[in-house]
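Just scan my protein:

——
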Amino acid sequence: MSQPVGNPNDYCYRHPDRRSFILCQRCGRTVCTECQVQAAVGVQCPECVREANKAIPKVRRPLRFGRGSATPVTYAIMAVNAVVFGVNFLTTGIFSGGLMYQLFVYVPAATGVEPWRMMTSVFLHTQFLHILFNLYTLWIFGRMLEQSLGKARFLALYLISGFAGSVAVLLIDPTGGVLGASGAVFGLFGAFAVVQRRLGGNSVQILVVVGLNLAIGFIIPGIAWEAHVGGLLAGAAVAAVLLATRERRQRSLQIAGIVGIAVLLVATTVLTVLAR
């Protein structure tokens, strides 16, 4: 290798055979054209750039499973709930049973002969305040989760949570009945809390919201708190599976995990009905 002639400070500190009169703006060392990194003012050497990058706080990227920011599934679910409520209201009036009530309400005692009611009841409401609360909550949390998880994953989360709410009622209060999207909504609460914690965000607020709503279910009579608990646990479980299988190569494992949760709920239902 050729040796520099003259003042050694006039040669690149990384390439002693290359003469340069350009200095790094941070450390003052001479850098050749190959080593220069353009800065806001002047140039810097690679070492200074590396050190500067280490000092920049790392920002967590939003959790993204799906593509785009549209939320058609959330709005479709809201529309179905509204239409069912409207039909029931127009045919029988408010605060009464009605045609839709007779068709869709879930009665655990009838699970063996009409198991589909465990899902249809999730879309049935008979009171204004009930549906307004559920639709408002779905509008807030549903859109955020659908944007993060994607349409198919969000739909699976919602339906599994709603089904889990019915399963919990079957297990804990088999003599009663249940209707409403509250189990599915609490599933969104559980999923959102898990996602927030995974992203390192402040989950205190969502935990407070969940705690208050659970408390209301225990305090006020006539509220199926069993469905709330079942939906909450199922939603958290689905979110945990999704977070653990985020990589594209884990897609099959992710599907297997979600299907596994659904199969477990179905098996629990079948075994409970047979045992009674």
Summary: The radius of gyration is 29 Å. Strands lie at 37-38, 43-44. The first strand starts at residue 37 and ends at 38.
